[in-house]
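Preliminary data (for renewal application), zinc ion complex.
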Amino acid sequence: MRPARTRDNTEGDRTVAQPVTQQAGEFGRATLREIDAGGADSLLHSATPPTLVDVREQHEWDAGHLAGALHAPVDSVATMIHGLVPNPETPLVVYCAHGVRSARAAVALGALGYTNVQSLAGGIVAWEEAGLPLAPTARTDAQHARYARHLALPGFGAEGQARLLRARVLILGAGGLGSPAALYLAAAGVGTLRLVDFDTVDISNLQRQVIHTTSGVGTAKVASAANQLRALNPDIQVEAINERLTADNAGALTNGMEVILDCTDTFDARYALNRAALAARIPVVHASVYRYEARLTVFTPGSGPCYRCMHATEPIAEAAPACDVAGVLGSVPGVFGALQATEAIKLLLGIGAPLVGRIMLWDALDARFDEMRLQRDPACADCSTVQ
Ligand SMILES: [Zn+2]
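Predicted structure:
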């Protein structure tokens, strides 16, 4: 084992000598050399800086990496390294998240004839904990921190977050479903949220419409909701439109939107929205609630059924009483509004299997989810001509 080196480290107004970890240990049968974050930083600022090799997966790389690093995921590094670093005498510092994969990679590179390979002890996590910088990205530091849990997600990463920040989503209805849906989409960083509702906040709404507060009673729902959303996430634009959606204005209200959340509770609005969304070819995430039950489905114009395929004619009023008559458990729209936000994000990012041609049913009392198939109606008055 080499003796530990020391280096000067200015800490406040006093200078202290601090050991730099440089361990030699057995890893399998080959020798592993490790270097800590401070030591690596010193080397990078020396006359002969090492080449950095990041052996993490793509989504981890996208979420942030060291400046100037090369990228070769650990399972590919043995085949990629000759192309990236032809000279086997080049000093290399290999890193991953915590130092486990990079240790494996360093040993593998040694076996391939690379003579000067060190693994960053503690990985990029230790690097950041030491206060050392990452390569600048398009995101601000504040955004990087805000969306860190998205950036770490497989299939999401920096590209997915950037996509959400550019996205435009209409939420029709700022009530029981629209409240949680809007909060989750705002928190997720959906760049533009257009809220449409014509109602004012009533004290009886607060049992389930969790975006509104007691002090907002009597104000327009879209204004009350917009205040909360802007407070939650100043990155996003909120368009608050205090109007009732009708057949006459549905085209204008949906114009320019990429995904629509149907959080209404009237059949007139749902049919008007259906026709406008089909005409503009905008997918709709539809949900409805009834007492302790809820249902959810996604309509994609041209490739799946539409709202009228599900309800060819408006149910008679007695068969579909509104919340104020039938009652509703507040948490039920809470769950399904959050599911609507989830389906919207999936559509925007193109990940997972959207709930198209399927209806998710939930009975809260039985604690049971079920699924029904929903076929496109070839004779549908609204969508049969939409290709
Ligand atoms: Zn249809």
